[in-house]
Amino acid sequence: MVVFKDDQFQLEEFSEDYEAAIGYLCEEARALLTTYEADGAQPENLYAMAFQGFSVELTEEKKNQLQKDARVKSIEPDRIRVLGTL
Question: What pTM was estimated for this model as a whole?
Answer without folding.
Answer: 0.82
